[in-house]
From TrEMBL:
The keyword Protein biosynthesis applies. SMART domains: B3_4, B5. The keyword Iron-sulfur does not apply. Tetramer of two alpha and two beta subunits. The gene is pheT. The lineage of its organism: Archaea, Methanobacteriati, Methanobacteriota, Stenosarchaea group, Methanomicrobia. This is Phenylalanine--tRNA ligase beta subunit. CDD domains: PheRS_beta_core.
Length: 538
């Protein structure tokens, strides 16, 4: 989950209260305090609340929760004075486009850092590492409207951020640190996205890098915010960034986007979404009957607008920056958060039940007993991983059976694992300071083609590790499980040719074992031979 650094000076100024009160009360809105420093506090927020990825968003939530400024936060948006034309050539590359102007912002060095951190957090939280959403913020005083959003030839050149000499867009993808990191997003395209001003000055090369011309400094007051991408999360990110800047005293202004066919669009929408709550669903989910005025009060404390209708139902206004509100249950959860979970009485269930262990738990327990008896130590790595570790470092081809995380919070957690061995190799890599031999295992969940599975994997690292060691381990394991098996030559590229084997039971492949391929060992930064196995337990 994202950890946000909040400077005390900013927090106190934006909330109108002291830091001690904030530190005491902020865990009650669903945040975990990671560490408390002299000048700032680090707080971990759930990934479903991207509106809290900045000090401005946290301050807004705190003001409501402490009854300083409860209720729906309404932002004035002035009519447009700036236009951007959107060329139809961009529709096949990066079609979804949102933008707005914010004027009169007062920046300090910490405010600029907060804005940059918010951008990067949104790139992960909403944008899947910029693929679905990328954000640019520009000093409006350095460029001239009207602007154009086009697909440009890769040989077009400009001075990218953090550089002093012009580079072509192709060179940026090959040589600039941001370019090499995100070049894969534009693989297969013969033209690249570009935002230009009236004089052909470059504002942005989304989703890669901004131009150095429009870099935000402490002297910047007026900003153009552009958000490009592939999905409607573009507009959510635009709402979050513009309202965060408005919390700094900025005045939001619409921007008109003109399509190639002459159609006009205003992408910014900060009007409230409205949902209707029934009393029965509120009482049923919370587990107690709250008075209507109490429900309305708690909704206001959580940043919603709320009023009782004539028929007893409750109308709720939802801010556009609240990306986490998908249905009524999300709103009712916030009522409970505002009221306080500790105030909700505990009630024993009406039905008496007799529990027993699940079959999968029994299998896992048996495997743990066998493996520990064979001298292996159990580990419990994350089930989320990345394509880089899962496929590239294991020298395996990417497969189509992967389940990806919709809103990953870091580049290390973009998918659910389909095998366990990469996780065990990572643990060996992180424990090189410990003496050898190291022998670890896990019996844990995998997800293949959207279905849960249960695998057992183990690895051993030591100077004498070889195929015989892992063959004896698998033989002992299968003997303890009373399972007849055979081995055949394997083609798994994660293992060395001639020192690898597939494990076959009743004519079906259930696993693989062998000596890890030298390049795999190098990819994980290890310097000793490694053997391992993995089998499907179901």
């Amino acid at each position: 989950m994202p950890i946000i650094t909040l400077p005390y000076d900013d927090l106190e100024q934006l909330t109108g209260t002291d830091k001690d009160t904030i530190i005491e009360r902020i865990p009650m809105i669903g945040a975990d305090i990671e560490r408390i420093e002299e000048e700032s506090i680090d707080i971990e927020f759930f990934p479903d609340r991207p509106d809290l990825y900045s000090v401005e968003g946290v301050a807004r939530a705190i003001r409501g929760f402490l009854d300083i400024e409860p209720g729906f936060c309404e932002y004035e948006v002035k009519p447009y004075t700036i236009e951007i034309t959107k060329d139809d050539s961009i529709d096949s590359v990066r079609p979804v486009f949102g933008c707005a102007v914010v004027r009169g912002v007062k920046f300090s060095s910490s405010a600029i850092k907060t804005l940059m951190d918010l951008q990067e957090s949104l790139h992960w939280g909403l944008g899947r590492d910029r693929k679905k959403v990328s954000i640019g913020v520009h000093d409006l005083s350095k460029v001239q409207a009207p602007f154009r959003y086009i697909a440009a030839d890769p040989d077009f050149s400009f001075v990218p951020l953090d550089f002093t000499e012009p580079m072509t867009m192709k060179e940026i993808l090959e040589k600039h640190p941001k370019g090499t990191r995100f070049a894969h997003i534009l693989d297969g395209f013969d033209k690249y996205p570009l935002i230009l001003d009236a004089n052909d000055n470059v504002l942005s090369f989304p989703p890669i890098i901004n131009g150095t011309l429009t870099m935000v400094t402490e002297d910047t007051t007026d900003l153009l915010v552009d958000v490009t991408g592939l999905s409607n999360e573009v507009y959510t990110a635009l709402n979050i960034v513009t309202t965060a800047l408005a919390e700094r005293g900025g005045q939001i202004e619409y921007v008109k986007v003109i399509g190639a066919d002459g159609t006009e669009n205003i992408p910014l929408d900060l009007s409230a979404r409205t949902k209707i709550l029934e009393r029965a669903e509120i009482d049923g989910l919370i587990g107690m009957d709250l008075p209507v005025d109490e429900i309305v009060k708690q909704l206001n404390r959580m940043g919603f607008g709320a009023k009782e209708l004539d028929d007893g139902r409750i109308e709720v206004q939802i801010p556009r920056y609240r990306a986490d509100i998908l249905d009524n249950s999300d709103i009712i959860e916030d009522i409970a958060v505002g009221y306080g979970f500790d105030k909700i009485p505990a009630v024993f269930p009406m039905n008496a039940t007799v529990g027993k262990s699940h079959m999968l738990s029994d299998i896992s327990s048996d495997m743990r007993e066998i493996m520990t008896g064979l001298g292996y130590s159990q580990v419990m790595p994350f089930t989320l991983t990345s394509e880089r570790v899962h496929f590239d470092w294991m020298c395996r081809e990417k497969t189509d059976d992967v389940t990806y995380v919709m809103h990953p919070i870091s580049e290390d957690q973009t998918m659910v694992r389909t095998t366990i061995l990469p996780n065990l190799m990572e643990i060996l890599s992180m424990n090189q300071h410990r003496e050898l031999p190291q022998r670890i295992f896990e019996a844990g969940d995998v997800v293949i083609s959207g279905k849960n599975g249960l695998h057992l994997a183990g690895v051993s690292i030591n100077a004498q590790a070889n195929f015989t060691e892992v063959r004896e381990l698998v033989e002992a394991l299968m003997r303890e499980r009373l399972i007849e098996y055979e081995i055949v030559e394997s083609e798994d590229p994660a293992f060395m040719e001639g020192r690898r084997a597939d494990i076959i039971v009743d004519g079906k492949k259930i696993g693989v074992m062998g000596e890890l391929f030298p390049q795999v060992i190098v990819n994980f930064g290890l310097g000793q031979p490694v053997v391992g196995f993995e089998i499907d337990l179901l």
